[in-house]
Amino acid sequence: MLNGIILGLIAMFSFGIIEIALKKVSERLGTHTTILYRGLFVVITLLLFSILFQQPVILSPEVILWMILTSFFGIIAFFSFVYALKIGKVSVISPVAHGSAAVTVLLAVLFYKEVLSTFQAFGIILVILGTLFVSFKWKELKNLNLQEITKGLPYALLTLFTWGITFFLYKISVNKAGAFTPALLIDGMTFLGMLAAVPFVKKVAHPSKKDWWLLAFIGLFSGIAILCLSYGFTKEFISVVTPIVYASPFVTVILARIFLKETLEINQYLGIMGIIVGVVLLAF
Question: Looking at the whole model, is its pTM more than 0.85?
């Protein structure tokens, strides 16, 4: 059980450290270009992992069909999230989008019949609520007008539902093909989808040298995150692993506090405490 939680924590950390870089790159390069090159570096990372650790790719028509369906929702989710970050306020977009853990947990309990202990159920609630609390600053949020709050909100809501469905469906392919193949296919199909869309995009931005480094950084840690998530699903209920992974804003705000000297507000401290206590409870 603990192995799945540890893998979830590594995925959470990996996703958390790229969020600031993702916003900066998407603002300069646009949504399509960011997703395209991020996908390239994720695929490179996963292929290197396959070579180094001799991980086979297990393909079957059934697995490919499930991954096409999963990737469809995944592309919508990631595209809507990056675009929402680009046009909206992080203090609004992030808590809404990361609430998708609740969708995944609900679907897993209903359709996979995952049975949780009382401690685990309470831990999941604490992690989800903690993620929502840590994802925004109350002072910034209360100073926003209605237009600023609603800008990007429809895309954040779309992300909430499609991300929740993506992780729910992803478990099916993991059960059928093991951990590595779905990890490679979901980002590989996303990359190919963005590549196929290039002729229909008005302009594909040219990354600067700094952008290339940031994209490589984002791709590397995205690859690590998806691998840990995938292997975590083989060790533990997705209703336990997924909320931990979605708690990545916890890492983002901690890093912003340490390196950018950003101040944390009381709701964020409460969110951090909720996530820590919640993760501990998930181990019982």
Answer: yes
